[in-house]
TrEMBL record:
Known cofactor(s): pyridoxal 5'-phosphate
EC number: 4.1.1.15
Provenance organism: Actinomadura luteofluorescens
Name of the molecule in the record: Glutamate decarboxylase
GO cellular component, one term: cytosol
Family statement: Belongs to the group II decarboxylase family.
Cited NCBIfam families: Glu-decarb-GAD
GO biological process: L-glutamate catabolic process
GO MF annotation: an example: pyridoxal phosphate binding
Length: 475
């Protein structure tokens, strides 16, 4: 009997003709609806595998902050734990214990007063962790206002316009007014004076970013804390800080130990980070920690009993894999403090070297040098009009390199830049290959008489550097 094939899709659909194994009859695979019947596992695998070959090479993706390399042993542990649900702490008590150990390790790394009793949890990533930090700020502010008999219906959050898009989502989803401090001149992130000027009795907190996605620079957390201390002394307003350390919270403790940004500053109420960025875990896992139990209102916490003890949980998500938490613990165990310091220092060395070499290649100049996060931004010189950063981004893509080009937000929309993120696995050897391709690309583009691409032709993978609208308001 002749094999039955599903009918072709109607107008607007495109079926896929495949013949993954030469001795098999060609097969029609619908793209946008379920096939009518089953197919061999090897055939299904080959169809999916072949299409994914058209994806970019993750190791050459200089746009993403997310880890693209892991040791075989970490991958094995993740595979062994892929069926474990992180929320089932009673069923997977050892995985829950590893999560708790990671929280305490991070609490010690970030100089919490009592790391053994630290309050924190794992999340799906730093975006969820940031939203949890924002929720705690809002709830604490609301409780204080109600206790004082004051209205609590107009909360606002102060941050730089350079914050990651998750903060815009937080403000939208949880009905908080976002107060963005625009960029000015050579200040590409939040400043202490500018932050304080936007604070009032309805401010639930200030977000300070330890590593801007726009240019890799640290925001001055200690200066912001000092300015808020002064504000409280003058007005009585007590405004806490949440540190978005998505990347920098796993860089600064190892490379900048004297930098004050963490729980050593009494005004810092909470910190988030990405385990799957410079925590060196494959995606996705994040971490949220609070200074103490007072900083995390108990009515936001759900308590789960496991091993006869209490395990507090606070998350927007429910079911999620435990594999990444296990991989985080593996990395902490495997590398230790010195191992993380060595990995992050290598990334910074590569970034600062690349930034310096690009700065010496006409017609580019660097905005930042990779000395904070191992991330830097560079642009085409203002007196050169033969090509744009968007031409460069498109041309580098022909060689497999994914380098985002984007415009800065208000008030520096005149800046169009390229950004390079150096991660573990992008060493000096790959950096040399990148520079070779950039030199060849630049030489070819300089033969153009005029630019071919502008922001409208940007590829759209800015990875956190999306523009935000600053609302005009009276201060």
């Amino acid at each position: 009997m002749a094999p039955k094939h599903p009918p072709r899709a109607g107008r607007g659909g495109r079926d896929l003709e495949v013949n993954p194994i030469f001795t098999r009859e060609p097969l029609t695979v619908p793209r946008y609806r379920l096939p009518a019947g089953e197919m061999e596992p090897s055939t299904a695998y080959q169809v999916v595998h072949d299409e994914l070959m058209l994806d970019g090479n993750a190791r050459l993706n200089l746009a993403t902050f997310v880890s693209t390399w892991a040791e075989p042993e970490a991958r094995m542990l993740m595979a062994e734990c892929e069926a474990k649900n992180m929320i089932d702490k009673d069923e997977y008590p050892r995985t829950a214990e590893l999560e708790l150990r990671c929280v305490r390790m991070l609490a010690r790394l970030w100089n919490a007063g009592d790391p053994h009793h630290a309050v924190g949890c794992s999340t799906t990533g730093s975006s969820e962790a940031a939203m949890l930090g924002g929720l705690a700020l809002k709830r604490r502010w609301r409780e204080r206002r109600r206790a004082a008999g004051e209205p609590a219906d107009r909360p606002n959050l102060v941050m730089g316009v350079n914050v990651q898009i998750c903060w815009e989502k937080f403000a939208n989803y949880f009905e908080v007014e976002p107060r963005y401090v625009p960029m000015e001149g050579d200040r590409y992130h939040l400043g202490a004076r500018e932050a304080v000027e936007l604070c009032d009795e309805n401010t639930i907190g200030v977000v300070a970013v330890l590593g801007s996605t726009f240019d890799g620079s640290y925001e001055p957390v200690a200066d912001i804390a000092a300015a808020l201390d002064d504000l409280q002394a003058r007005t009585g307003l007590d405004v806490p800080i949440h540190v978005d350390g998505a990347s920098g919270a796993m860089i600064a403790p190892f490379l900048d130990p004297d930098l004050l940004w963490d729980f050593r500053l009494p005004r810092v109420a909470s910190i988030n980070t990405s385990g799957h960025k410079y925590g060196l875990v494959m995606p996705g896992v994040g971490w949220a920690l609070w200074r103490d139990e007072e900083a995390l209102p108990d009515d936001l916490v759900f308590h789960v009993n496991y091993l006869g003890g209490d395990m507090p949980t606070f998350a927007l998500n429910f079911s999620r894999p435990g594999a990444q938490v296990v991989a985080q613990y593996y990395n902490f165990l495997r590398l230790g403090f010195d191992g993380y310091r060595r990995v992050q220092q290598t990334c910074r060395d590569v970034a600062t070297r690349l930034a310096a070499e690009i700065d010496g290649l006409y017609p580019y100049y660097r905005l930042t040098g990779g000395g904070d996060l191992p991330v830097f931004a560079f642009r085409v010189r203002e007196d050169f009009d033969g090509f744009t950063v968007y031409d460069v981004s498109a041309a580098l893509r022909e060689s497999g390199w994914l380098v985002p080009a984007y415009s800065f937000p208000e008030n520096r929309t005149d800046l169009d830049v390229l950004r390079v993120v150096v991660r573990n696995g992008f060493g000096h050897d790959l950096a040399e290959l990148f520079m070779d391709d950039l030199r060849r690309t630049t030489l070819r583009l300089r033969s153009q008489k005029q630019p071919h691409r502008d922001p409208r032709q940007a590829s759209g993978f800015a990875h956190g550097a999306e523009p935000k609208k600053v609302q005009a308001r009276k201060v």
